[in-house]
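@channel sequence for tomorrow's demo:
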Amino acid sequence: MKRSLVVPGIIIIAIGAFVIYSLQGGPNDAEYITTIQKERRDKETYLKSGEGSPFVKDSLPFTGLQYFPIDPKYRIKAKLKNIDKKKVVLLSTSDGKEQNYLEYAFAEFSLDGKENRLLILELMETGPNRGKLFLAFADETSGRETYGAGRYLDLKKVPAASTVILDFNLAYNPYCAYNDSYSCPFPPKENLLQVPILAGEKNYHP
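structure tokens (generated this afternoon):
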């Protein structure tokens, strides 16, 4: 059986980094870069030796992660557009199955002169992750500099919020990019961006 995508260790690391600078006043560039660098070091440490790591579980060699340079331009405050009649969305997965999600809201933002819109989904699975937000996207780098099946962002749900921070410097690969024994959902058709996101994690090269 394929392993589930959701891995608490990575989520804790990503949410921790998010809380440090997203819920406080905007950090200056130096502080921001230091925060992202620390998050990346913590993730590498986890993947090398953490319980639940896709490398540790199957005794796979870890060769290190590659990233785009940290660029504050890609930390974007997007407008949240509510969806009145929310529907269940079925996302195809890397192992030929489907996973159910619930529409949450659209995030709208401008980048490089283009207006963009991403669909944020809510997890419907049972257990501690139920209700958490999920954002999978692909862009003009997908299949070239970055993983062809898209990347993910972790978002924090804030009731009644009218904006959301999309920090593409924290964009990360699903575990399928490292180990094909995992089951990972592909981005919905709404989340195929027509701009390059030159931020976050690049392709993994074993």
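heads up for whoever presents: The CA atoms of residues 123 and 131 lie 5 Å apart.
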